[in-house]
Amino acid sequence: MKVAIFGVGYVGLTSAACLINDGHHVIGIDVSDSKVRMINEGKSPIYEPGLEALLAQGVAQGRLEAFQEIGDRLADCTLAIVCVGTPSAVDGSHNMGYIAEVSRQIAIAATALPARERPLTVMYRSTMRPGSIDKLIAPIFKGFLGDMSNTVELVYNPEFLRESTALKDYYAPPKIVVGTVDGKPSATVDELYGAIEAPRFYVGYREAEITKFVDNSFHALKVAFANEIGRICGREGVSAKTVHEIFISDTKLNISPYYLRPGGAFGGSCLPKDVRALTYLSNEVGAETFVLDAIMRSNDAHKRYLYERATDGVAPAAKILLNGLAFKANSDDLRESPYVDLARRLLQGGYDLKIWDPQLEPSALTGQNLGYSFAHLPEMTSLLLRTPEQLQEADFDLVVDARGDAATLGLAGVRIAAINSLP
Questions:
Q1: How far apart are CA 270 and CA 207, in angstroms?
Q2: Would you say residue 273 lies in a domain?
Q3: What residue numbers bound the domain in which 107 lies?
Q4: CA nearest 124: which of 52, 208, 201?
Q5: d(CA 375, CA 12)
């Protein structure tokens, strides 16, 4: 089928690459001129293992092209996938401005669609609060199309892609959740995911919309819980590693080991903003969810704890290497990375800081990733070491290990403070 993808960030590009791999034709649409240009050259605006090769393949085969405007390009599309950002607003809710604008553009384009055997399926993958389709998106479409039953089918399909393993996650998701107007299957979605084996749930819009909130808030809760235990252990001279081993051995009652290892604070583009948004929603409806309310404060406390732990006993003005700046290894995503916060604290503490993160290229950052990184760490470019030779030539007093692989850097005799896994 021919698929239009609106928003070519992590989710949009991953979807495009996998759709190309499955034999589909993809049109990428994004307001960013640089992203559109890079995609049409077969290059990826972001780093994700295996992604650029599939994009280059799509361009070479004539099955991938990108544009800044819709025009009449929806005429022969079976599916339009919306993957634009829903960043945190000042009050913690999701900013739905991009969703509203893209919905308006698609609705206008849909008014000129020729008669079709099957309605154009417009699938939303951006994370947004329950009621977004009913109260925001559907009214926009109805305002332009009136009765849209024969023209457009609105679907909500939350994504469960983890950065650095996104391509694998697309083909092996933990589940497939599809929200439709009546909770019944969509023929287009069934065709799209026909070869993927995973538990499949067809539900109403609101059940599908809240799924990602629940998942991400629980993941965030597990990280915060484990780190609180780790801090208590650290203060009391107890081995957090041993306690962790005992805890995760109970897979019957303690659910699973994932996100339950005491270590780094959580960050990235999903967990912080979705916890804020669900907390905002809870406060708005008076649900009084005190654990949720505490998650972000607990995470901030853990950032301070990691700084204190890393610098404990370290002389003022010591030369420190921060191994890793992105919020997780094998990624160049700096949005709400706890290690950006740590780097800023180290600079404010008067330490002589350098950073090693081989996946990170400041000139390649775009969009919110670019804005966040330089707004919170404007010195980033001058702090980064670019080559292994620079790494070996430097003389460090301490390596603060955020990636977990400092032992492989070959810096003999340098003390390592591991903060991604508390002992």
A1: 19
A2: yes
A3: 2-198
A4: 208
A5: 25
- Vertex 83, ends 268 and 187: CA angle to 5°? 130
Which sign, positive or negative, has the C-alpha torsion 49, 51, 52, 56? positive
Mean pLDDT of the chain: 92
Please, what's the b/e burial string for 33-54 (b: 16 or more CB within 10 A of its CB; e: otherwise)? eebbebbeebebbbbbeebbeb
Q: What is the spatial distance between Cα 412 and Cα 207, in angstroms, rounded to a whole number?
A: 53
pLDDT digits (tens, 9 = 90+) for 273-296: 989 988 888 888 888 888 889 999
Pairing between β-strand 319-323 and β-strand 200-204 as defined by DSSP bridges: unpaired
Among candidate residues 138, 170, 198, the one where a domain is terminated: 198
Q: What is the rounded distance in angstroms from the CA atom of residue 322 to the CA atom of residue 343? A: 7
Catalytic: which of 18, 77, 233, 270?
270
Give yes or no: 270 in active site: yes
Full-model pTM = 0.80
Q: Write the pLDDT tens digit of every residue in 191-241.
A: 999 999 999 999 999 999 999 998 999 889 888 888 888 988 888 888 999
Which pair of tokens denotes residue 125? Answer: 């993958």
- Residue % of the chain over a pLDDT of 90: 72
∠ at Cα 238 (234, 242), nearest 5°?
110
Closest CA to 154 of 194, 191, 114, 125: 125
Is the CB of residue 327 less than 8 Å from the CB of residue 267? yes
Domain end call among 198, 232, 260? 198
Q: What is the pLDDT of residues 223-237, one digit of tens each?
A: 888 888 898 888 888
CATH number at residue 298: 3.40.50.720
Q: How far is CA 218 from CA 288, 299, 384, in A?
A: 17, 14, 34
CA 158 – CA 123 distance, rounded (Å): 9
